[in-house]
Design a protein that fits this description.
This protein is an alpha/beta fold. The protein has 29 helices and 34 strands.
């Protein structure tokens, strides 16, 4: 069916195929509710599109694995503190491991970095790091950390897991970045983000230590930008700034963009819902950093590759295996009622419209294979997967998918239907043979027929109402009575409710109603055109248009004056017939066929098959002369030639089969000759020849049987060996996965430890510079009092050199005049009580020596620390001060006037000899006593105390204060008292000097 549909399109050779935006699986969302760059209602690109609101700020998910720490540091070094973006980092780390990423990135990033916790709200200008071994997701703007349940996937893919939730939660405000790492984690997640109109980046492989993860993402075609980590920040900021700008209305530019798309892709997107088309177009404009539609139109005209990118953007190629597993369970429950009444031998025909890269086509193949295995019925299954995107179809035919499908496919199905390869899984041949993939436009090309099941999931939501109605009517026409229709969760059959009955309303499983099929319009259908509008003049046609295959074939054949010929493809099916071939080909009875060998007349079939086999094996021209053909009561001899076509390029992989007749031999002439020959041959000779032929045939049969037995035995041995090798290969694959996972974890831990070592080296350098800058001689000893390390200043005390490390301290001769050094060191090590001494060296240098216990981080004693602080200048100053004090005391003691010095508390600090003599007092009675208590309170006069308070509080000096007092030993005395503050002179805060002048006349 697929090949005939393709052939039909070639024969029409129309300038463009009409409708159908991408017939592909896409997210189950409502496309007409689209976020916008601002909260204001703005005019759309298409004149009347619905308003859109964007949720506020971009959330950037960053996936990194082995070698990713360096890339993360380079990236966050370039991110400013006020970017307005939120960042979430997911890395591959073993569960329970203590992560150093928050501390390491917190030092490099200009924004706060925290380890994520369950329920934490994501805010702009913040950096969140997933805990090691967690499968974190984003739900309603909050980070979700599910508790371990023991049902986690065999292969942990935390990056894909988070990216998918990020795409669903943030939509166009989601950004995904894949940095250095091994494996393919993150590829499917980026595909989901791009499908929701988000933006994606990957690290340039030239700057990545491990290239597997970024290469996988780029190879899957889901990356918008490939940049070095330090260059990504500018891309993000420009994208965020343009995403906040409101779009400008330019209807004429939009129509010209549609014409460009139609001219290059031969697809008319006029049936696409306006809201969806607007969102996808704006995303490409933001990616290219273009604000206006007119500017983007000029960019498209100058860069044809951007037209291809926009074409792919509008197709929304998002799909996965068993998307909505409960929906496939509902479909599996409806399958028995469809297949059980079927007689064995009748094929089961399935059409997956908009299959994208083939995941859902293979998913339904798995469901049918599992059911048929349980039923035990040998039914033939034919699945047709179609899509309008040739690149998606090519990927589907390859059947290779990233390792991330382990989150969608159960382990039992992976083992049964897939083969593990490097960084992915490939569909097994038995499942692959069930599905035929073809490029096909469901709304513009002839449909498949006599179908039992049609899957069209999440295609209708992107089409206008009239296009939805057309597709539903077309599916009804293609389905057998009782056939099933399987739609996406956001779709319905409301546009054609009379054509289907509902089997499962929630998961959209419907059965074809037994009503007459509606009349379909003739193809190509033009009902998807938008409402009439004033269209601008069409763009000028390209000078060079791609010629059709039919035209090329006709030109080639006419140029070479070819006789009756046919062109076949690599499967032996006829692509084109030239000339009259009725003498060589005739349709066989039964089901129509397009295979050349099956159409050949008797006599030609065997020779033609041999020629085809020889040509296919040699890839060269093959000629078979005089092939005898029986036709129309006579025989004809013909020369058959087959040769491969190589020019032009579009005809490669095709073959040209030519028939050149050699003349016809009438039956009336041929029969008498045969009869005469039979009558002239001796019967005995014929019998002997027949007997000899039988013997040779019997011998050949025996040899064939022996050969078959040997081949069977060899096949059994090979099967056994293959099973053993398969088992060994599975074990090796499992070991490889474990080793790869362990290697990634080790690389991550090694990177973190290296960064920690760098920090420790920096801290060590800081401490070393601190010790050197203090100019303090320091010696570190272990528990055996052996030298571990020392500062350069210790050379002056112990004459140490670098080779003295490890020597006992007792072996060294210090330059100190102190013999108890070793005893003090042992006492401190024993009692853990610090020791401090002032010691003198032979070079007349004084040191304050301190011996302290050395405590480790775990609070264990690891030896001693000896410090020697040079206090020579302080010692000299102290000597000078002592001499000066003695000098001044001698001067004061020679004065005849009594005087005393009070401290801030009005206690006597010192007094001269005259005071002791005049008042007959002793030093013990004076020093340290409150002045009003001395001599029985003789000086406790209110007037004197008032003046002293003024001196202490306001620094107000007084002179000539006359007072009389009775002293116990000398009687009454009359004196004049002078007082003033002395802190500026002697350096004693608040000290007061009192001078007394004895006056005669006392009683």
């Amino acid at each position: 069916m697929a090949s005939k549909a393709h052939q039909g399109r070639s024969r029409r050779a129309k300038p463009s195929r009409r409708p159908s935006p991408r017939e592909t699986s896409a997210p189950s969302e409502k496309p007409d509710v689209v976020p916008t760059p601002s909260s204001e209602v703005t005019a759309g690109l298409f004149g009347s599109s619905p308003s859109r609101e964007r949720s506020g700020f971009l959330v950037v998910g960053i996936g990194a694995s082995a070698g990713g720490l360096e890339a993360l540091e380079e990236f966050f070094n370039a991110v400013p503190a006020n970017s307005g973006l939120a960042f979430v980092v997911i890395s591959h780390q073993r569960p329970g491991q203590t992560s150093l990423l928050p501390q390491l990135l917190g030092k490099r990033a200009a924004i706060p970095a925290v380890e994520a916790t369950d329920g934490m709200r994501v805010e702009p200008n913040r950096l969140y790091l997933a805990p090691p071994g967690s499968h974190m997701s984003l739900r309603e703007g909050r980070l979700v950390l599910p508790k371990p349940t023991g049902t986690e996937p065999r292969v942990a893919l935390p990056i894909d897991y988070f990216f998918r939730s990020l795409a669903e939660d943030r939509g166009p405000d989601a950004v995904g970045i894949v940095l250095s790492g091994a494996g393919s984690d993150g590829t499917l997640g980026l595909k989901a983000i791009k499908g929701h109109a988000g933006m994606t980046l990957a690290q340039d492989v030239a700057s990545a230590r491990y290239t597997n993860m970024p290469q996988s993402a780029v190879g899957a075609g889901v990356v918008d930008y490939v940049r070095r980590p330090q260059e990504m920040a500018d891309v993000l900021l420009n994208y965020a700034r343009r995403a906040r700008q409101a779009p400008t209305e330019n209807t004429q530019a939009w129509h010209r963009i549609l014409l460009l798309l139609q001219e290059r892709s031969a697809v008319d997107f006029s049936a696409y819902k306006i809201g969806t088309a607007q969102r996808r177009l704006e995303r490409r404009m933001h990616v290219n950093q273009i604000s206006g539609l007119g500017d983007y139109l000029r960019h498209l005209q100058a860069n044809p590759h951007e037209v291809d990118a926009l074409f792919g953007e509008l197709l929304i190629g998002v799909t996965s295996f068993f998307r909505d597993p409960a929906a496939f369970e509902a479909l599996a429950q409806a399958v028995p009622a469809m297949l059980d009444p079927r007689a064995d031998g009748t094929p089961v025909r399935v059409w997956v419209a908009g299959c994208s890269t083939g995941e859902e086509a293979y998913s339904i193949g798995i469901v049918l294979r599992e059911y048929l295995a349980v039923r035990g019925a040998p039914l033939n299954v034919q699945i047709f997967g179609t899509d309008i995107d040739p690149r998606a179809i090519e990927a589907a035919r390859t059947g290779f998918y990233p390792i991330g499908i382990v989150n969608d496919v159960t382990p039992a199905r992976l083992d049964r239907f897939f083969v593990k390869e490097d960084n992915g899984y490939r569909v097994r041949k038995d499942l692959r043979d069930l599905v035929v993939f073809a490029v096909h436009n469901a709304l513009g090309d002839p449909p498949f027929s006599k179908l039992d099941l049609v899957l069209c999931r999440n295609l209708l939501i992107y089409l206008e109402s009239v296009a939805q109605q057309r597709l539903l009517r077309l599916f009804h026409h293609a389905l057998n009575p009782g056939g099933l229709l399987f739609l996406g969760p956001s779709e319905s059959v409301e546009e054609a409710r009379d054509l289907y009955t509902t089997l499962d309303r929630k998961w959209k499983v419907f059965r074809r109603a037994d009503v007459p099929a509606p009349l379909l319009e003739a193809l190509p259908w033009s009902g998807m055109r938008a409402a009439p509008r004033e269209m601008p003049a069409p763009l000028p046609a390209r000078e060079e248009r791609r010629p059709s295959i039919v035209g090329l074939l006709q030109t080639m054949l006419l140029d070479q004056y070819a006789p009756a010929s046919v062109v076949i493809d690599s499967r032996g099916e006829i692509v084109y017939i030239h000339g009259r071939t009725g003498a060589y080909l005739e349709p066989p009875p039964g089901r129509p066929t397009n295979v050349l060998v099956e159409l050949a007349r008797p006599g030609l079939r065997v020779a033609l098959a041999a020629v085809l086999r020889e040509a296919a094996s040699t890839r060269k021209e093959v000629l078979r002369r005089g092939v005898r053909i029986r036709a129309n009561g006579g025989t004809t001899h013909v020369d058959v030639t087959i040769r491969p076509l190589s020019e032009p390029e579009v005809l490669r992989r095709l073959w040209l089969v030519t028939f050149v007749p050699m003349g016809r031999e009438p039956r009336s002439r041929r029969l008498p000759q045969a009869e005469a020959m039979l009558r002239g041959r001796d019967a005995t000779e014929l019998v002997e020849e027949l007997s000899y032929t039988k013997e040779r045939l019997q011998h050949s049969l025996e040899e064939l049987q022996a050969t078959n037995e040997e081949l069977m035995s060899s096949n059994e041995e090979l099967t056994s060996t293959n099973e053993e090798l398969q088992s060994t290969n599975e074990e090796l694959e499992t070991t490889k996965e474990e080793m790869q996972s362990l290697n990634e974890e080790l690389v991550t831990v090694n990177s973190e430890l290296q960064a920690k070592l760098d920090d420790l080296a920096e801290a060590h350098a800081d401490l070393q510079n601190l010790l050197n800058s203090t100019d303090i001689a320091t010696v570190f000893l272990d528990n055996d009092l052996k030298i571990k390390r020392f500062t350069p200043q210790a050379h002056e005390v112990f004459h140490l050199i670098p080779t003295d490390v490890g020597r006992p301290l007792a072996d060294l001769v210090p330059s100190l005049a102190y013999e108890r050094l070793m005893n003090d060191a042992r006492d401190v090590l024993r009692t853990l009580t610090p020791c401090e001494r002032v010691v003198h060296s032979a070079s007349d240098t004084w040191y304050t020596m301190r011996i302290l216990p050395y405590r480790t981080i775990k609070d264990a004693i690891g030896g001693l620390v000896l410090t020697f602080v040079d206090v020579t200048r302080a010692k000299q100053a102290e000597t000078v001060l002592t001499r000066a004090r003695n000098y001044f005391e001698s001067i004061v003691d020679t004065l005849r006037e009594p005087l005393m010095v009070l401290d801030a508390g009005l206690c006597i600090v010192s007094a001269n000899r005259a005071l002791y003599r005049v008042f007959d007092l002793l030093p013990a009675d004076v020093q340290g006593q409150a002045f009003w208590e001395v001599a029985g309170g003789a000086w406790n006069a209110p007037e004197l105390r008032e003046h002293l308070e003024r001196v202490r509080s306001s620094n107000e000096a007084f002179e000539g204060l006359e007072m009389e007092a009775v002293f116990p030993r000398v009687g009454r005395k009359r004196v004049l008292v002078n007082g003033r503050r002395l802190e500026q002179q002697i350096g004693l805060p608040g000290s007061i000097l009192l001078v007394m002048d004895e006056r005669p006349g006392a009683a």
